[in-house]
Amino acid sequence: MTEHLDVLIVGAGLSGVGAAHHLRTAFPRKTVAILEARDAIGGTWDLFRYPGVRSDSDMQTLGYRFRPWTSAKAIADGPSILRYVRDTAAEAGIDRLVRFGHKVVRAEWSTEDALWTVEAVHDGTPVTFTAKFLYLCSGYYDYESGHAPDFPGLERFGGTVVHPQHWPSDLDYTGKKVVVIGSGATAVTLVPAMTDRAAHVTMLQRSPTYILSLPSEDALANRLRALLGARLAYPIARWKNVAVSTLIYQLSRRRPGVVKALIRRAAMKQLPPGYAVDTHFKPRYQPWDQRLCLVPDGDLFRAIRRGTASVVTDRIASFTETGLRLESGAELDADVVVTATGLRLLAFGGIELVVDGTPVKLPETMAYKGMMLSGVPNFAFTIGYTNASWTLKADLVAEYVVRLLRHLDRHGYDRCVPVNDDPAVTERPLLDFAAGYVLRSIDEFPKAGSRAPWQLGMSYAHDVVKLRHGRIDDGALQFSRRTAGAGRLGA
Questions:
Q1: Are 204 and 278 in contact (CB under 8 A)?
Q2: Which of 40, 124, 355, 433 is least surrounded, with the fewest CB atoms within 10 Å of its CB?
């Protein structure tokens, strides 16, 4: 049997749960379901199980706008975030909307029927759904595998090699020498977290990353919560953190030398006297060309001061039987090697999109407001900010989808589709970000445009104005009805 829905969401992670909450609150009589390939709610926060897994954004902004984060910790651990997402789903009954173990492989739009036909696989069996609106909240990571470079001599290594995306539950590194390859957010999380049991942990990096220490608790947010209660304090703390992060980002882009000096000075204060700061903590790129790495309470620096962790900046020549040989000629002994070498991007979870029998070639489409695709009707997706918390954008996209569906209902439209007919709009990368995981795959993604509404905005304040309050019928978004008496999109 084919199940028919008003809105079909793909993905039961942070974005999907939030989207369902917004939709159910606004349209209690619409039929909504979530297709989730995995067997649990949580998405990224259910997938990653490595030691110390945590947010690299504060929870005042990574939390949902509609549900205050009430824990004292602002930089939260993965299990706490997962519990928050699942509690949100359970309290609103969203967990009952999820179809677990449903991997979506294909979605085809029919203009004649004004419907999506969505094909999924469940327990090896094809399952079909139809929906008036398709909403992808599947993120942009490949959940099957991370990025794994081809290291010379890896087969000779006699120890254990693990990728953080597939962390073995039975891995025992007690008393062992651990080398973590990488310098991004995952590496700087793993290194101090593994020092509790490992004999020593070495972070091996090809080049440094900007690392900034922040308090794990937001003193102002906690004080406001005690004075005003969670509901009143939350938006104040949220906007305060938005303002601070925006200020740091804008200063980084406009006065990179100032920000570099501030970050370097802060690192020097937390590292041992005489430490080679410029060798290990002075990146070659400008601040926010890649995402800043946050370390709560300076835990990475503390581990280096204690001598339980160290940083080596060099390139790998080859693996050996007992560790790694570096291009400098130095050797690192290791019992366990963690390849924190990055993630792989996968546009829309690899789902094949088809419109009226013609396959959609994603690189030939352009993203409208960073959340819809040119030429693809009744379709939205969530991609969060690279310079701020993911959920800030996810909430705004969900609010916009609610406004869009109300517009369709109010005017009796069956179809809305972004159309780029402005020859002055030139193509840009969808993610203007120099991180390796982005550069490796960005050509497989839709394009952004050189001007609104085809730009992917990276300013939450601007997007609040455009997505929460801007016109729906802006000329680039076109609407139509199947017939003069076409029905409304839900009720």
A1: no
A2: 124
Structure tokens at 322: 């007992």
How many angstroms separate the CA atoms of 56 and 210, rounded? 13
The CB density around residue 364, as the number of other CB atoms within 10 Å, is: 11
Give per-residue pLDDT as tens, 52-64: 999 989 999 999 9
- For residues 174 and 50, state if they share a domain: no
CA angle 49, 52, 55 (to 5 degrees): 90
The pLDDT score that the predictor gives to residue 425 is 94
- Residue ranges in the chain modelled with pLDDT below 50: 484-491
Residue 32: half-sphere exposure toward Cβ, Cα within 13 Å: 29
Range of the domain at 76: 3-144+344-480
- Looking up tokens 């990475």, which residue turns up? 300
How high is the pLDDT of residue 483?
62
Residue 373's DSSP bridge partners are 367
Ranges of beta strands (E only) in 95-218 are: 98-100, 102-110, 115-122, 125-136, 160-162, 177-181, 200-205, 211-214
With DSSP H G I counted as helix, E B as strand and the rest as coil, what are the percentages for the chain, rounded to 5? 35, 25, 40
The DSSP result for 339-405, as a single string, is E-----B-GGGGPEEEETTEE--GGGSBEETTTEETT--SEEE----SSS-HHHHHHHHHHHHHHHH
In this structure, the answer to whether residues 93 and 205 fall within a common structural domain is no
In angstroms, the first-to-last Cα distance of the chain is 23
Domain count, the chain: 2
Structure tokens at 138: 């599947």
Closest CA to 246 of 288, 188, 296: 288
Q: Phi/psi zone of residue 428: left (φ > 0), alpha (ψ -120 to 50 degrees), beta?
A: beta
Has residue 150 been placed in a domain?
no
If asked whether residues 309 and 352 sit together in one domain, one would say: no
Residue 61 lies in a domain: yes
Q: Of the candidates 291, 324, 339, which is a domain's last residue?
A: 339
Q: Considering the domain boundaries, does residue 491 fall inside one?
A: no
Judge whether 206 and 231 are in contact, CB under 8 Å.
no
Residues in the chain: 491
- Per the structure block, which two tokens stand in for 479? 């609407």
User: Could you say which of 317, 339, 361 is where a domain stops?
Assistant: 339
